[in-house]
């Protein structure tokens, strides 16, 4: 199945934002990614794309105001054909090479104003008529919520926007894809105590998609360098693997262990605290790997230690046999044992 992600990155000019995108692609082995609100001038497009994903294909649309949506994909795994480009969405057909199956993806970035978003709702309704019997995924930043439980904190009267969004979903026949992770996908990052959260980002699918992949879900990750959370859809949920941070405890006894941790931990990382921790742990992996190599072949050392231990056990067993055979006689074995016992019992 297609590994894909949609993320409102809130700018792609900064180095830390570019690194966060590359990390996302690498961590989840993505085939397709849509980036919203890149804020990149048209003259800098080629340079930014080469720094983020140099070997991937890219689509950008500067005809729409604000350069709202960028799409990148690995053309060795999928083919992408763009069918319709609106001011608030990009609609494309994706052929997955491995499955030899075609799906439709619509990437959305809704306008901030309620009146402007009506163009988006109407565009999605018109698209739904043309979909036919093909799996359809619609996802992105809708700038609207479905009900009041998706808002935490005072944010004004949003009932009109909420009702229009629900009407659009009803008319298009879209369904909410099962989700895990963060419930709220956007935070205003206020420092004056007037914080509020909303679930502005989501993935929706049609009934054909739901019938084809009934166990599929997407993950809403913790925010990284943006105030929006990345949305990641990674294949079949049965094949998902969680990458854990592990290292060998014996490395803590190495002279350079604490120095290595301090050198990496003091470097600042832009983004949320949890993202900063994960970035630093990832950087430590290569350091610990090098320290482990300097200790030699760990597996061979374990085998040698086990062999040495086995040899000691065998020698002790042989000593017991010798004692059973000649321990009670006036032999060298008896007198050696007596001398050893006296030496051990002596009080200085």
What would you note in describing this structure?
Residues 7-228 form the Endonuclease/exonuclease/phosphatase domain. GO terms for molecular function: catalytic activity. This is Endonuclease/exonuclease/phosphatase domain-containing protein. It comes from Sesamum angolense. The protein has 348 residues and is α+β, with helices and mostly antiparallel strands. The protein folds into 3 domains: 3-239, Endonuclease/exonuclease/phosphatase (Deoxyribonuclease I, Chain A, 4-Layer Sandwich); 249-294, no CATH class; 302-345. It is 38% helix and 21% strand. The chain has a 7-stranded mixed β-sheet with strand order 3-4-2-1-16-15-11, covered by helices on one side. Helix 3 runs parallel beside helix 4 (159-172) and helix 6 runs antiparallel to helix 7 (273-294). The protein is elongated and about 105 Å long. The protein starts with a strand and ends with a helix. The model has no long low-confidence stretch (mean pLDDT 85).
């Amino acid at each position: 199945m297609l590994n894909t992600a949609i993320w409102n990155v809130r700018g792609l000019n900064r180095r830390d934002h570019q690194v966060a995108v590359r990390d996302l692609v690498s961590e989840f082995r993505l085939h397709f990614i849509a980036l919203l609100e890149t804020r990149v001038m048209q003259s800098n497009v080629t340079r930014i794309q080469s720094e983020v994903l140099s070997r991937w294909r890219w689509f950008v649309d500067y005809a729409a105001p604000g350069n709202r949506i960028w799409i990148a994909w690995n053309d060795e795994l999928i083919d992408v054909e763009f069918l319709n480009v609106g001011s608030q969405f990009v609609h494309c057909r994706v052929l997955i090479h491995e499955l030899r199956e075609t799906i439709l993806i619509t990437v959305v970035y809704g306008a901030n104003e309620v009146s402007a978003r009506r163009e988006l709702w109407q565009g999605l309704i018109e698209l739904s008529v043309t979909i036919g019997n093909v799996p359809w995924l619609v996802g992105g930043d809708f700038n609207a919520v479905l009900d009041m439980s998706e808002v935490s904190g005072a944010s004004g009267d949003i009932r009109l926007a909420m009702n229009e969004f629900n009407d659009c979903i009803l008319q298009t026949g879209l369904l909410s894809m099962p989700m895990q992770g963060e419930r709220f996908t956007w935070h205003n990052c206020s420092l004056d105590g007037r914080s509020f959260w909303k679930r502005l980002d989501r993935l929706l699918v049609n009934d054909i998609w739901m019938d084809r992949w009934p166990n599929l879900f997407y993950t809403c990750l913790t925010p990284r360098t943006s105030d929006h959370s990345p949305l990641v859809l990674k294949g079949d949920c049965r094949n998902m693997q969680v990458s854990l941070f592990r290292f060998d405890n014996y490395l803590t006894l190495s002279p350079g262990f604490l120095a290595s941790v301090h050198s990496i931990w003091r470097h600042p990382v832009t983004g949320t605290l949890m993202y900063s921790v994960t970035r630093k742990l990832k950087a430590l992996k290569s350091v610990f790997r090098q320290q482990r190599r300097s200790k030699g072949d760990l597996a061979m050392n374990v085998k040698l230690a086990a062999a040495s231990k086995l040899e000691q056990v065998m020698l002790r067993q042989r000593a017991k046999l010798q004692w059973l055979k000649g321990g009670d006689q006036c032999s060298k074995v008896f007198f050696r044992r007596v001398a050893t016992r006296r030496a051990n019992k002596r009080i200085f």
